[in-house]
Amino acid sequence: MPQAVLHATSRAIRAAATSVRHQLGRLWARRRLRRTLAACGALAFWLLMVYTILAFSIAAEIIHTERRPPVTTPAAADLPYEDVRFRSQDGLALQGWLVAPRLQGSPRRLIILLLDKAVGRGDPAVLRLIETLSDAGLTVLVFDGRGSGVSEGQRYMLGYGERYDLLGALEFARARGYQPATTGVLGLGTGGATALLTAAETTDIAALAVDSSYASLPDYIRATLRRRRLPSALLWGIHQATRLRYGPNLHHIVPEAAVARMTPRPLLVIHGEADQDVPAEHARRLVEAAGPGGATELWIVPGAGHLQAFAQQQEDYLRRVVTFFLQAMGSGYE
Q1: Which helix (H) or strand (E) holds 61?
Q2: Ramachandran sector of residue 296 (left: φ over 0; alpha: ψ -120 to 50; beta: rest)
């Protein structure tokens, strides 16, 4: 075979081999890309599943409350009271107690006691608080909010739905002859947030005292995520989960914005300095939101945790709360 033909054949073979290698390389690259994309897709799917499960789990935890039917009544403290029933503004049947002042002939001044979602009206500390208010000549209305105790409703609504409970309580109070000028609200924990949100919508509340309330629910949740070392990006998922499954919009639950709209009504803000659930910064924000024209008092209790100011400084707590309401409301005599 002539030398030129051998060279041509050799070049053709090498070119064919090179082409095959290139084709195989491109095929391998495409397969590797497909495997990489498939792995990325699977990872994204599982990350989305974990994100969704976490978001719905935390939303369920925030919404969750346990029914705590009262096992003790004000009769245990020899207080005059009656069982009462009324409806929330959106139609739920609510039950509670109307506790009269121990001293007959006291002026008609009413305190509506709004409890935290983890507190029952039959708890010893609640009964002690009711007793002190009654001894000070104040009538107390305390009731089970929606989804708690023996009232109707399926779940806690982050303080947003509970506004209708308080508005129903105010209608009940007016029907019983209590005037807005002599009606105050004492809100504990989540009950404080409800009181502030409601006060921005009605003038039927003369004065408010709140204990351990958050200033902004989204900020509270964000801080809770940081404390648990979870990414703040979960807040978006929690927001969507609460809206889809439960209804409330987290971004509408901002008591500090409500405070600005209820000023200049008297406001007493109580908070534990050592509160790890809702840091004391929230109390300071509520007072700041009232502005310089508001009749606002701030009491930060050293060493007290969440809703522990009463337990830590019981006598001072009762004195401050009673004094605040007696000074903030009218005489109550008709």
Answers
A1: helix 3-63
A2: beta
Q: How far is it, in rounded angstroms, from Cα 285 to Cα 261?
A: 14
Give the list of residues 6+ apart from residue 181 with CB closer than 8 angstroms, or none: 206, 329, 330
Q: Where are the domains of the chain?
A: 74-216+253-328
Strand runs (DSSP E) across 144-237, as ranges?
Answer: 183-188, 207-211
pLDDT tens, position by position, 166-211: 999 999 999 999 999 999 999 999 999 999 999 999 999 999 999 9
In whole angstroms, what is the distance from residue 96 CA to residue 155 CA? 18
Contact 133, 54 (CB under 8 A): no
Q: Is 3.40.50.1820 the CATH number for 74-216+253-328?
A: yes
**Model confidence pLDDT, tens digit, residues 7-52:** 555 565 566 556 656 665 665 667 776 787 777 877 777 877 887 8
CA angle 116–299–99, rounded 5-degree value = 45
* C-beta separation of 268 from 188 below 8 A: no
